[in-house]
Amino acid sequence: MEIAKLNRVILLLIFACLLTAGVHAKQPVQGPVKKTCGTGIVLKLSAAAASQGGLLLAEISGVKPSQELSAEWDGRPIPVWRETPASPKLHALLGVDLEKPAGRYEWKLSWSGADGKPFTCSLPVTVRAGKFPTEHLTVEKQFVQPDPEQQKRAEEDQKKMKAIYDTVTPEVLWKGKFVMPLKGVTTGGNFGRRRILNGEARSPHAGVDFPAAAGTPVYAAQSGKVVLAENLYYSGNTVVIDHGFGIYTLYAHLSEIEVKAGDPVDASDEIGKVGATGRVTGPHLHWGLTIEHARVNALQIVQRQP
Ligand SMILES: [Zn+2]
To answer: Distance from the CA of 304 to the center of ligand 1, in angstroms?
Structure first.
Protein backbone atom coordinates (compact mmCIF):
# COMPACT_ATOMS: atom_id res chain seq x y z
CA MET A 1 0.00 0.00 0.00
CA GLU A 2 2.72 2.43 1.05
CA ILE A 3 4.74 1.63 -2.08
CA ALA A 4 1.72 2.17 -4.34
CA LYS A 5 1.20 5.57 -2.70
CA LEU A 6 4.85 6.48 -3.22
CA ASN A 7 4.64 5.41 -6.85
CA ARG A 8 1.63 7.65 -7.30
CA VAL A 9 3.50 10.60 -5.78
CA ILE A 10 6.47 9.93 -8.06
CA LEU A 11 4.21 9.70 -11.10
CA LEU A 12 2.52 12.96 -10.12
CA LEU A 13 5.93 14.61 -9.70
CA ILE A 14 7.06 13.38 -13.11
CA PHE A 15 3.82 14.65 -14.63
CA ALA A 16 4.28 18.06 -12.95
CA CYS A 17 7.86 18.26 -14.27
CA LEU A 18 6.70 17.43 -17.78
CA LEU A 19 4.03 20.11 -17.54
CA THR A 20 6.54 22.72 -16.43
CA ALA A 21 8.92 21.64 -19.18
CA GLY A 22 6.06 22.07 -21.66
CA VAL A 23 5.38 25.59 -20.39
CA HIS A 24 9.06 26.50 -20.70
CA ALA A 25 9.25 25.03 -24.18
CA LYS A 26 6.31 27.23 -25.20
CA GLN A 27 8.20 30.45 -24.38
CA PRO A 28 9.51 31.46 -27.81
CA VAL A 29 12.95 32.99 -27.89
CA GLN A 30 12.89 33.94 -31.54
CA GLY A 31 9.93 35.20 -33.49
CA PRO A 32 7.20 37.54 -32.36
CA VAL A 33 5.50 37.32 -28.98
CA LYS A 34 2.02 38.51 -28.19
CA LYS A 35 -0.08 39.19 -25.11
CA THR A 36 -3.74 40.09 -24.81
CA CYS A 37 -4.33 42.56 -22.01
CA GLY A 38 -7.36 44.25 -20.44
CA THR A 39 -9.76 46.46 -22.47
CA GLY A 40 -8.87 44.57 -25.67
CA ILE A 41 -5.34 45.89 -25.94
CA VAL A 42 -2.80 43.50 -27.49
CA LEU A 43 0.97 43.87 -27.05
CA LYS A 44 3.31 42.46 -29.65
CA LEU A 45 7.11 42.35 -29.74
CA SER A 46 9.21 41.24 -32.70
CA ALA A 47 11.02 38.80 -30.35
CA ALA A 48 11.19 37.90 -26.68
CA ALA A 49 14.95 38.26 -26.59
CA ALA A 50 17.61 40.55 -28.02
CA SER A 51 21.37 40.79 -27.83
CA GLN A 52 23.24 43.81 -26.52
CA GLY A 53 23.09 46.46 -29.26
CA GLY A 54 19.90 44.89 -30.63
CA LEU A 55 16.54 46.30 -31.51
CA LEU A 56 12.96 45.14 -30.93
CA LEU A 57 9.88 46.41 -32.72
CA ALA A 58 6.88 46.86 -30.49
CA GLU A 59 3.26 47.16 -31.50
CA ILE A 60 0.16 47.91 -29.45
CA SER A 61 -3.17 47.19 -31.11
CA GLY A 62 -6.79 47.62 -30.06
CA VAL A 63 -6.18 51.22 -29.03
CA LYS A 64 -9.05 53.69 -29.31
CA PRO A 65 -8.34 56.83 -31.37
CA SER A 66 -8.21 59.23 -28.42
CA GLN A 67 -6.76 56.77 -25.91
CA GLU A 68 -3.53 57.79 -24.21
CA LEU A 69 -0.99 55.13 -23.31
CA SER A 70 2.38 55.38 -21.68
CA ALA A 71 5.15 52.89 -22.26
CA GLU A 72 8.19 51.99 -20.21
CA TRP A 73 11.23 50.02 -21.21
CA ASP A 74 13.34 48.83 -18.29
CA GLY A 75 11.62 51.33 -15.98
CA ARG A 76 12.18 54.34 -18.23
CA PRO A 77 9.46 56.06 -20.28
CA ILE A 78 9.76 55.54 -24.03
CA PRO A 79 7.72 57.19 -26.76
CA VAL A 80 4.96 55.42 -28.67
CA TRP A 81 3.49 56.73 -31.90
CA ARG A 82 0.57 56.24 -34.23
CA GLU A 83 1.19 55.84 -37.95
CA THR A 84 -1.95 57.89 -38.68
CA PRO A 85 -4.16 59.76 -36.19
CA ALA A 86 -7.03 57.28 -36.68
CA SER A 87 -4.86 54.14 -36.58
CA PRO A 88 -5.83 51.62 -33.85
CA LYS A 89 -2.15 50.61 -33.65
CA LEU A 90 0.70 52.24 -31.77
CA HIS A 91 4.37 51.56 -32.36
CA ALA A 92 7.57 51.79 -30.37
CA LEU A 93 11.20 50.74 -30.78
CA LEU A 94 13.03 49.13 -27.90
CA GLY A 95 16.74 49.76 -28.22
CA VAL A 96 19.08 47.55 -26.20
CA ASP A 97 22.22 49.49 -25.36
CA LEU A 98 25.42 47.66 -26.27
CA GLU A 99 26.48 47.70 -22.61
CA LYS A 100 23.11 46.82 -21.06
CA PRO A 101 23.79 43.94 -18.67
CA ALA A 102 22.37 40.61 -19.81
CA GLY A 103 19.21 39.68 -17.91
CA ARG A 104 15.45 39.92 -17.83
CA TYR A 105 13.74 43.26 -18.39
CA GLU A 106 10.21 44.45 -18.91
CA TRP A 107 8.31 46.36 -21.55
CA LYS A 108 5.34 47.84 -19.71
CA LEU A 109 2.24 49.71 -20.83
CA SER A 110 -0.12 51.78 -18.69
CA TRP A 111 -3.46 53.27 -19.69
CA SER A 112 -6.89 54.16 -18.34
CA GLY A 113 -10.12 52.36 -19.15
CA ALA A 114 -13.37 54.13 -20.09
CA ASP A 115 -14.24 54.79 -16.42
CA GLY A 116 -10.74 56.00 -15.63
CA LYS A 117 -9.69 52.69 -14.11
CA PRO A 118 -5.92 52.24 -14.49
CA PHE A 119 -4.58 49.25 -16.41
CA THR A 120 -1.05 47.92 -16.83
CA CYS A 121 0.29 45.10 -18.95
CA SER A 122 3.82 43.97 -19.65
CA LEU A 123 5.96 41.59 -21.67
CA PRO A 124 9.30 40.26 -20.46
CA VAL A 125 12.39 40.77 -22.63
CA THR A 126 15.57 38.76 -22.22
CA VAL A 127 18.78 40.60 -23.03
CA ARG A 128 21.64 38.32 -24.00
CA ALA A 129 25.31 39.21 -23.88
CA GLY A 130 26.64 40.15 -27.32
CA LYS A 131 29.69 38.39 -28.67
CA PHE A 132 32.04 41.29 -29.27
CA PRO A 133 35.72 40.80 -30.05
CA THR A 134 38.41 42.91 -28.46
CA GLU A 135 40.67 44.89 -30.73
CA HIS A 136 44.01 46.51 -30.10
CA LEU A 137 44.63 49.72 -31.99
CA THR A 138 47.36 52.28 -32.17
CA VAL A 139 46.20 55.86 -32.62
CA GLU A 140 47.89 59.25 -32.21
CA LYS A 141 48.86 59.84 -28.57
CA GLN A 142 46.63 62.94 -28.25
CA PHE A 143 43.54 60.74 -28.67
CA VAL A 144 44.45 58.48 -25.76
CA GLN A 145 46.08 61.04 -23.50
CA PRO A 146 44.51 64.36 -24.48
CA ASP A 147 46.03 67.48 -22.91
CA PRO A 148 43.76 69.54 -20.59
CA GLU A 149 42.54 71.73 -23.45
CA GLN A 150 41.71 68.74 -25.67
CA GLN A 151 40.10 67.03 -22.68
CA LYS A 152 37.93 70.11 -22.14
CA ARG A 153 36.87 70.09 -25.80
CA ALA A 154 35.99 66.40 -25.65
CA GLU A 155 33.89 66.98 -22.52
CA GLU A 156 32.04 69.86 -24.17
CA ASP A 157 31.32 67.64 -27.17
CA GLN A 158 29.97 64.98 -24.83
CA LYS A 159 27.64 67.49 -23.15
CA LYS A 160 26.41 68.64 -26.55
CA MET A 161 25.68 65.06 -27.61
CA LYS A 162 23.90 64.31 -24.35
CA ALA A 163 21.66 67.37 -24.81
CA ILE A 164 20.79 66.14 -28.30
CA TYR A 165 19.98 62.61 -27.16
CA ASP A 166 17.99 63.95 -24.18
CA THR A 167 15.64 65.62 -26.66
CA VAL A 168 12.74 63.54 -27.93
CA THR A 169 11.04 65.23 -30.88
CA PRO A 170 7.40 64.10 -30.56
CA GLU A 171 6.98 63.79 -34.30
CA VAL A 172 7.55 61.14 -36.96
CA LEU A 173 10.25 62.71 -39.16
CA TRP A 174 11.04 59.49 -41.03
CA LYS A 175 9.38 58.32 -44.22
CA GLY A 176 9.53 54.70 -45.31
CA LYS A 177 12.60 52.57 -44.76
CA PHE A 178 16.12 53.25 -43.53
CA VAL A 179 18.85 52.90 -46.14
CA MET A 180 22.63 52.39 -46.04
CA PRO A 181 24.64 55.62 -45.74
CA LEU A 182 27.00 54.63 -48.59
CA LYS A 183 26.02 53.51 -52.08
CA GLY A 184 26.75 49.91 -53.06
CA VAL A 185 27.50 48.84 -49.50
CA THR A 186 25.57 46.00 -47.91
CA THR A 187 27.34 45.55 -44.60
CA GLY A 188 29.78 47.17 -42.18
CA GLY A 189 31.79 46.02 -39.18
CA ASN A 190 33.28 46.66 -35.77
CA PHE A 191 30.00 47.23 -33.92
CA GLY A 192 30.38 46.68 -30.18
CA ARG A 193 34.09 45.89 -30.30
CA ARG A 194 35.78 46.33 -26.95
CA ARG A 195 38.82 48.49 -27.64
CA ILE A 196 42.31 48.74 -26.30
CA LEU A 197 43.88 51.93 -27.62
CA ASN A 198 47.64 52.20 -27.29
CA GLY A 199 47.39 49.59 -24.52
CA GLU A 200 44.54 51.31 -22.60
CA ALA A 201 40.96 50.01 -22.34
CA ARG A 202 38.42 52.41 -23.83
CA SER A 203 34.65 52.52 -24.24
CA PRO A 204 33.27 49.99 -26.74
CA HIS A 205 32.85 50.93 -30.36
CA ALA A 206 29.26 52.19 -30.58
CA GLY A 207 28.90 52.43 -34.35
CA VAL A 208 29.32 50.52 -37.59
CA ASP A 209 32.44 51.23 -39.66
CA PHE A 210 32.51 51.24 -43.44
CA PRO A 211 36.01 51.43 -44.91
CA ALA A 212 35.81 53.66 -48.00
CA ALA A 213 38.03 56.00 -49.97
CA ALA A 214 38.21 59.59 -48.75
CA GLY A 215 35.75 61.69 -50.76
CA THR A 216 33.11 58.93 -51.15
CA PRO A 217 29.67 60.56 -50.81
CA VAL A 218 27.77 59.90 -47.56
CA TYR A 219 23.97 59.85 -47.58
CA ALA A 220 21.31 60.39 -44.94
CA ALA A 221 19.96 56.97 -43.91
CA GLN A 222 16.50 58.37 -43.36
CA SER A 223 14.64 61.67 -43.55
CA GLY A 224 14.82 63.97 -40.58
CA LYS A 225 16.38 67.17 -39.36
CA VAL A 226 20.12 67.85 -39.03
CA VAL A 227 20.76 68.72 -35.38
CA LEU A 228 24.57 68.79 -35.45
CA ALA A 229 27.00 69.48 -38.29
CA GLU A 230 30.46 70.36 -36.94
CA ASN A 231 33.88 69.17 -35.94
CA LEU A 232 34.06 67.19 -32.69
CA TYR A 233 37.27 66.12 -30.98
CA TYR A 234 37.01 62.34 -31.28
CA SER A 235 34.53 61.89 -34.12
CA GLY A 236 35.99 64.63 -36.35
CA ASN A 237 33.57 66.23 -38.80
CA THR A 238 30.26 64.92 -37.60
CA VAL A 239 26.61 65.06 -38.69
CA VAL A 240 23.73 64.00 -36.46
CA ILE A 241 20.20 63.64 -37.83
CA ASP A 242 17.07 63.60 -35.68
CA HIS A 243 14.44 61.22 -37.10
CA GLY A 244 11.92 61.91 -34.34
CA PHE A 245 10.81 59.97 -31.26
CA GLY A 246 14.33 59.66 -29.87
CA ILE A 247 15.82 58.07 -33.01
CA TYR A 248 19.12 59.60 -34.15
CA THR A 249 21.77 58.63 -36.70
CA LEU A 250 25.36 59.89 -36.57
CA TYR A 251 27.95 60.12 -39.36
CA ALA A 252 31.55 60.66 -38.27
CA HIS A 253 35.11 61.31 -39.51
CA LEU A 254 33.84 63.14 -42.63
CA SER A 255 36.29 65.07 -44.80
CA GLU A 256 33.52 67.49 -45.75
CA ILE A 257 30.15 68.37 -44.24
CA GLU A 258 27.53 69.45 -46.78
CA VAL A 259 24.60 70.27 -44.47
CA LYS A 260 24.09 72.56 -41.51
CA ALA A 261 22.18 72.27 -38.23
CA GLY A 262 18.49 72.89 -38.82
CA ASP A 263 18.45 71.54 -42.38
CA PRO A 264 15.68 69.11 -43.23
CA VAL A 265 16.97 66.06 -45.15
CA ASP A 266 15.43 63.20 -47.07
CA ALA A 267 16.72 59.63 -47.11
CA SER A 268 19.61 59.32 -49.62
CA ASP A 269 20.35 63.07 -49.59
CA GLU A 270 24.11 63.65 -49.72
CA ILE A 271 25.26 65.09 -46.38
CA GLY A 272 29.05 64.91 -46.69
CA LYS A 273 32.09 62.94 -47.80
CA VAL A 274 34.05 60.10 -46.21
CA GLY A 275 37.22 61.26 -44.50
CA ALA A 276 39.72 60.59 -41.73
CA THR A 277 39.06 63.43 -39.28
CA GLY A 278 39.15 62.88 -35.50
CA ARG A 279 40.36 59.67 -33.83
CA VAL A 280 40.89 57.29 -36.74
CA THR A 281 43.41 54.87 -38.19
CA GLY A 282 42.37 55.65 -41.78
CA PRO A 283 39.51 56.96 -43.93
CA HIS A 284 36.14 55.34 -43.20
CA LEU A 285 32.59 56.23 -42.33
CA HIS A 286 31.54 55.64 -38.74
CA TRP A 287 27.78 55.31 -38.58
CA GLY A 288 25.86 55.34 -35.30
CA LEU A 289 22.24 54.75 -34.35
CA THR A 290 20.87 55.87 -31.00
CA ILE A 291 17.35 55.07 -29.87
CA GLU A 292 16.31 56.69 -26.62
CA HIS A 293 19.97 56.80 -25.47
CA ALA A 294 20.52 53.13 -26.38
CA ARG A 295 23.51 52.62 -28.69
CA VAL A 296 22.19 50.14 -31.21
CA ASN A 297 23.71 48.34 -34.21
CA ALA A 298 22.56 50.58 -37.09
CA LEU A 299 22.57 47.69 -39.56
CA GLN A 300 19.53 46.32 -37.74
CA ILE A 301 17.32 49.22 -38.81
CA VAL A 302 18.19 49.17 -42.51
CA GLN A 303 15.23 48.23 -44.69
CA ARG A 304 13.00 48.55 -41.66
CA GLN A 305 10.33 51.05 -40.98
CA PRO A 306 10.34 51.98 -37.31
ZN1 LIG B 1 34.03 53.80 -35.89
So the answer is: 22
